Amino acid sequence: MHAVVVGVGALILGWSALAQAGARSGLSGSPGGLLTPSAEHQTAGYFALGASYASPYRTLNLNVQPFDWLHVRTGYVDITDRPYGPGLSQSYKDKSFDFSLRLLEERVWLPGISIGIQDLGGTGLFAGEFVALSKSTSEWAATVGIGWGRLGRAGDFDNPLGLLGESLKQRQEGTLNATGGTPSTSRWFRGQEVGLFGHLTYQPRWARGFSATVELDGNDYSNEPAGQPVTQKSRVNFGFGYRHGGSNISLAYLRGDALGLSLQTSSLIGKDFLYRERSYAPALSQDEHPAYRARLPVDFSPRLSQFARYLLDHGYFLHAMDYQSTPRRLVVWQSNTRSDRMVDTFRFVSRAALNYLGDDVATIRVVTMAGGLPVASAERTATEVTAEARDEAEVGVGLETSRRNAAEVTSSSVESWVFSPSSRDLALRAANFPSLLRYPTASAGINPALRSNIGGPTRFFATQIQAKPFLTLQLARNLSLSAVAAVEVYDGLDDLQRFTSGTLPPVRSELEIYQSSTDTVYLDELELNYNAALAPDWFGRLSAGIFEEMYGGVAGEVLYRPYAKRWALSLNMNYVVKRGYEQRFSFLDYRTATGHLTLHYRTPFQGIHLSASVGRYLARDIGGTLEVTRVFRNGTQFGLFATKTNVSSEEFGEGSFDKGFFIRIPVSELGLGGKGVASFNYRYLTRDGGAKVNDGVDLYSVVGAHQRYREYE
Fold first, then answer.
1. Which residue has the higher pLDDT, 377 or 31?
2. Higher-pLDDT residue of 671, 109
3. 130, 151, 466, 588: which has the fewest Cβ within 10 Å?
């Protein structure tokens, strides 16, 4: 009890002088002291990876902040003194999923308040809940809170929620053999007693990057899942940290008898502001720039050729052009490596057109092509284009400006622009120059790849380093053939063991066999895709070949994407056969048909995108998948998905149902340029229920980004 008095006293002494500051991270990477949470939150878009050690536990964690009010952490805890299972050499690993929800944002005279749940749907071995209050300045940060479960086992006083009913005084503790995978609501904020926790952190201005923390732990370590009892000589923990840029190292003295070490690296990868595409040449007029105009040919055709060359030199690929001298209308069909936004594309192309073609153009229409399909267009008069360029020049948005918020780059409202869908644009075939790209075209290269297995029974992390040569043949505007091989550079997957769980056909759970059975070189993909614009806002796809490392077959998809709406609807169907383990051209006996009807909806609220699908899965089970994604304006995505089908938890096996998360980062944010995306997808367990096949490039990923609202949100 003396430790409680000392800890609370320190917090009270520092509280009155505190005002708002940034969030500090604990050993787990989440906002907090050392082992205790706080009410602070990081900036939306925050992403961090880290590892820590405090005997007998080692942790690997990933932290993200999708919104200012929501922090999410997932990771593994390695219980170093408990074996994984009979006959296995590695120690026991426990997965966790935590979140913290901000109820009240910190104000000048008010603390921030957050509520959180740890080990939301796992085994419950490290489950705990908390309510925390935090206040901070640029140098000081203080937190006080109460914890349930593992965060409150010190039992400083009775559970105040027990006044609402006797059931809230009973708590079901986690067990080592629990299946896990479902939210354990029977534990949340329940128990006979709760514990008090808190911490005080000092970050001196004169020692930038350094911090010191004293903490009162709410856990007494009386019920730990370790192989041997965990002792605690003191509830007061001490620690020091150093932060430089996005890297953070912390050293702590815990429980009065143990050292703790944490290494974290973080970055703000999600940004809710959008940098404008590299600035464009202004729209010039004949009389204002006679010297510039004098260098252009007098005849129209050579100037049109120079205009086309200029676009190609700047990453714009012309599919077709059409020019009508009466009424002086230019239409350009293009795809580019610069931007998905029609606003950026139109500004660049239209101003270049006026610079090269001048008074010969009165109206300009630009059509964006994606996957060989005309997906969106914008049209404006030359007068409007020139006026916007003049306005930008007056406010300093000229050639010298390369990075500026898109919401500030023009004095005219983008909402007044004439955007329209362009699917099945028959004018393309009737254009003056209908086939400016010559087919077939080929592109080839070699990509590095990491083939990994995380959380398996043989080893926690097994990996294979690969080189993946690829060849893509564009046989026609909307017909392509892609081939990808995999060449082993380093193999750490050859001794993987299959982990069986559940009673469904092994449609995915034989992943370890595929990973350990391939030769040095194997075929990863050989796929033919045909896309078609069926009608305005209607698109279709046919695919055939070897789709992925485990399946090949045929597939078809139809997508309805109303250009002016926020939603889209797609129907996907396929017939697939399971590939041979050596991943060449042989197939196994298992074959099935799957199909899904999917509704996509991009909400107007904080970049939340929803996808809900229903249908038949690879194991012939029937159910639905829900995907929730936070999309930032710079293109970064944090997403969660879950699938529930008509199989029981026992049939599914460990994990109860399929679920996981993904992170997608534009390569431009990684300093690589272009429009590509780096993706990380993770399933908590690879099981057979709720499994889909990756059957070609889905249409929504190709055309879904091209909807009218994206141009001015």
1. 31
2. 109
3. 588
The backbone torsions φ and ψ at residue 537, rounded to the nearest 5 degrees and listed phi first, read 75, 5
CA-closest candidate to residue 595, choices 566, 620, 561: 620
Same domain (yes/no): 578, 704: yes
CA 5 to chain centre: 44
How sure is the predictor about 3, in pLDDT bands with cuts at 50, 70 and 90? very low
Q: How would you classify the pairing of strands 363-370 and 329-336? A: parallel
Integer-rounded Cα radius of gyration of the chain: 29
Place of tokens 């699908």: 613
Taking CA atoms, 16 is separated from 6, 12, 113, 125, in Å, by 17, 7, 16, 37
Q: Concatenate the DSSP letters of all residues of 31-75 into one string.
A: BBSSSSB-S----TTEEEEEEEEETTEEEEEEEEEEETTEEEEEE
Identify the three-state secondary structure at position 569.
strand
- Domain at 300, CATH number: 3.30.300
> Could you write out the DSSP letters of every residue in 243-261?
EETTEEEEEEEETTTEEEE
Q: What sections of 234-341 are H helices per DSSP?
A: 290-294, 300-313
- In 3-state terms, what secondary structure has residue 104? strand
Same-domain status, 314 and 461: no
User: For residue 302, what are the contacts with CB-CB under 8 A and spacing of at least 6?
Assistant: none
Give the Cα separation of 706 and 566 in Å (integer). Answer: 10
Domain that holds residue 636: 441-711
Given a contact cutoff of 8 angstroms between Cβ atoms, the answer to whether 525 and 583 are in contact is no
What tokens appear for 313 in the block?
């030199």
Q: Is the pLDDT of residue 212 over 50?
A: yes
Predicted TM-score of the model (pTM) = 0.83
Task: Label residue 675 by pLDDT band (50, 70, 90).
Answer: low
Q: What's the rounded mean pLDDT across residues 538-548? A: 94
pLDDT at 121 over 80: no
The 3 state secondary structure assigned to 449-514 is EEEEEECCCCCCEEEEEEEEEEEEEEEECCEEEEEEEEEEEEECCCCCCCCCCCCCCCCCCCHHHH
Residue 285 lies in a domain: no
The proportion of the chain whose per-residue pLDDT surpasses 70, expressed as a percent, equals 83
CATH number of the domain residue 635 falls in: 2.40.160
Which residue in 134, 98, 137 sits closest to 116, CA to CA? 98
Residue 9: its pLDDT value, please?
Answer: 40
